[in-house]
Amino acid sequence: MQIELLKSKIHQVVVTEANLQYVGSITIDETLMDAAHLIENEKVQVLDINNGERFETYVIKGEKDSGVICLNGPAARKVQVGDVVVIISYCSMDFEEAKHFKPYIIFPKNNQLK
């Protein structure tokens, strides 16, 4: 049996940009992506703490150590620059394997790990 569970979480980062004219996605600082074990084009769920929005999109790699969190395309209408968001990814795995899996959860400060 396969189940879905939390794989990665970037807890409470600040939206630095919202680009309505881009095709779609969320641009995330490469350093944050690496720490959270996210890869480019991976599906993520974005939870906006300020307004309660929850939506799905995919990841685009942002400049390393830039602190960028940019919502692109239609998702740009769901957030405001300055909003605090949580970014989550999930995975499927065998039920027994899932019992021992530890998700990759990071808690950046000012959108940086330092």
Q: How would you characterize the overall build of this protein?
A:
The chain has two helices and eight strands; from the N terminus they run βββαββββαβ. The chain has an eight-stranded mixed β-sheet with strand order 2-6-3-5-4-7-1-8. The chain is mainly beta. The longest helix is centred in the N-terminal third of the chain and has 6 residues, at 30-35.
**Structure summary, number of beta strands:** 8
| Count of structural domains | 1
Task: Calculate the terminal CA-CA distance, rounded to whole Å.
Answer: 40 Å
Q: What integer is the average pLDDT?
A: 96
Q: What's the SSE pattern?
A: EEEHEEEEHE
Rounded Rg: 14 Å
Structural class: mainly beta
How are the strands ordered across the major sheet? 2-6-3-5-4-7-1-8
Query: Major beta sheet, specifics?
Result: 8 strands, mixed
What low-confidence regions span 5 or more consecutive residues with pLDDT below 50?
none
* CATH architecture descriptor text: Beta Barrel
- Assign a percent range to the helix content: under 10%
Kindly identify the CATH topology: Barwin-like endoglucanases
Under CATH at level 1, the class stands as Mainly Beta
Form type: globular
Helical stretch count? 2
Which band does the percent of strand residues land in?
over 45%
What topology emerges from the helices and strands here?
Elements: E1 2-14, E2 17-19, E3 25-29, H1 30-35, E4 43-48, E5 54-62, E6 69-72, E7 84-94, H2 95-98, E8 104-106
Parallel strand pairs: 1-8, 2-6, 3-5
Antiparallel strand pairs: 1-7, 3-6, 4-5, 4-7
Write a concise synopsis of the structure shown.
By secondary structure, the protein is mostly beta strands. It is built from two helices and eight strands.
